[in-house]
C-alpha cells in the first residue's frame, strides 16, 4: 500500500497494555510484554513506508506513581528489548535515540540505553526515539535552563530574544523534526504531557485499538487519516 503523503515524524502514546492483559485474564506485566511486540511491528511498517522518525512514549515522569512491581517490570522489559533486538535493529538501519531525564534511572538501565544509542548512532533508515522518564513540562523547563547556562557560558545577554530554532536545539528530541502525526491508542483522547512543543501542528489520530493489538492495519489506517488532512499551519488552504 502506497501513500502520496507520509509524515516525517510520528509520535505514539502507547496506551492499553494493562487493559489488554486484564481482558486476557493475565498480569499487567504480560500486557507490557505484548506491547513490546507491537513496537517491533510498528517499526517494520514504518520502515516500509519510509517514515523517518517515530517517538514512542515508553515511560512518563508521572508513571513513577504506579506500583513498584509494574515499574520494575517495565524497565526489565526495556533491558530485555535492547538485549534481544539490538542486533536486528542494527541490520535494519534503525537509529535508537532517547528523550527524557536519565538521572532517576538505574545505572543498568542507563548503560543499556547508552549502549543502544552509541551502537546505532550512524544508522539512517529510521530513528526510533524512546521517550523514557519523559515529561513535556520537564523537557521545556530543562531546555530553558540549559539554554540560559549556555548563554552565560558564552557571555550572551539573557535579555536577547530566543528564537524557536535556538530553543529547539536544547530539546531532548533534537535534531528530530516536529511531529506530523500523533497517535494515541486505547480510546483515550488526551496528550498526557507528551511532546508538548513538538506537536504544535501535528494531526491527532485516536483509535480504540489497545496497544498490544496495534499492527500494520492500525498504522495504515492512521496514515490514511493523515493523507486526508489539509495541513494549513495557521494559513488558508
UniProtKB/TrEMBL annotation:
<keyword id="KW-0479">Metal-binding</keyword>
<protein>
    <recommendedName>
        <fullName>Isoprenyl transferase</fullName>
        <ecNumber>2.5.1.-</ecNumber>
    </recommendedName>
</protein>
<keyword id="KW-0460">Magnesium</keyword>
<comment type="similarity">
    <text>Belongs to the UPP synthase family.</text>
</comment>
<keyword id="KW-0808">Transferase</keyword>
<feature type="active site" description="Proton acceptor">
    <location>
        <position position="63"/>
    </location>
</feature>
<feature type="binding site">
    <location>
        <begin position="60"/>
        <end position="62"/>
    </location>
    <ligand>
        <name>substrate</name>
    </ligand>
</feature>
<dbReference type="GO" id="GO:0016094">
    <property type="term" value="P:polyprenol biosynthetic process"/>
</dbReference>
<feature type="active site">
    <location>
        <position position="15"/>
    </location>
</feature>
<feature type="binding site">
    <location>
        <position position="20"/>
    </location>
    <ligand>
        <name>substrate</name>
    </ligand>
</feature>
<feature type="binding site">
    <location>
        <begin position="16"/>
        <end position="19"/>
    </location>
    <ligand>
        <name>substrate</name>
    </ligand>
</feature>
<feature type="binding site">
    <location>
        <begin position="190"/>
        <end position="192"/>
    </location>
    <ligand>
        <name>substrate</name>
    </ligand>
</feature>
<dbReference type="Pfam" id="PF01255">
    <property type="entry name" value="Prenyltransf"/>
</dbReference>
<feature type="binding site">
    <location>
        <position position="28"/>
    </location>
    <ligand>
        <name>substrate</name>
    </ligand>
</feature>
<feature type="binding site">
    <location>
        <position position="203"/>
    </location>
    <ligand>
        <name>Mg(2+)</name>
    </ligand>
</feature>
<feature type="binding site">
    <location>
        <position position="184"/>
    </location>
    <ligand>
        <name>substrate</name>
    </ligand>
</feature>
<dbReference type="InterPro" id="IPR036424">
    <property type="entry name" value="UPP_synth-like_sf"/>
</dbReference>
<dbReference type="GO" id="GO:0045547">
    <property type="term" value="F:ditrans,polycis-polyprenyl diphosphate synthase [(2E,6E)-farnesyl diphosphate specific] activity"/>
</dbReference>
<dbReference type="GO" id="GO:0000287">
    <property type="term" value="F:magnesium ion binding"/>
</dbReference>
<feature type="binding site">
    <location>
        <position position="66"/>
    </location>
    <ligand>
        <name>substrate</name>
    </ligand>
</feature>
<feature type="binding site">
    <location>
        <position position="15"/>
    </location>
    <ligand>
        <name>Mg(2+)</name>
    </ligand>
</feature>
<dbReference type="InterPro" id="IPR018520">
    <property type="entry name" value="UPP_synth-like_CS"/>
</dbReference>
<comment type="function">
    <text>Catalyzes the condensation of isopentenyl diphosphate (IPP) with allylic pyrophosphates generating different type of terpenoids.</text>
</comment>
<dbReference type="InterPro" id="IPR001441">
    <property type="entry name" value="UPP_synth-like"/>
</dbReference>
<comment type="subunit">
    <text>Homodimer.</text>
</comment>
<feature type="binding site">
    <location>
        <position position="32"/>
    </location>
    <ligand>
        <name>substrate</name>
    </ligand>
</feature>
<feature type="binding site">
    <location>
        <position position="64"/>
    </location>
    <ligand>
        <name>substrate</name>
    </ligand>
</feature>
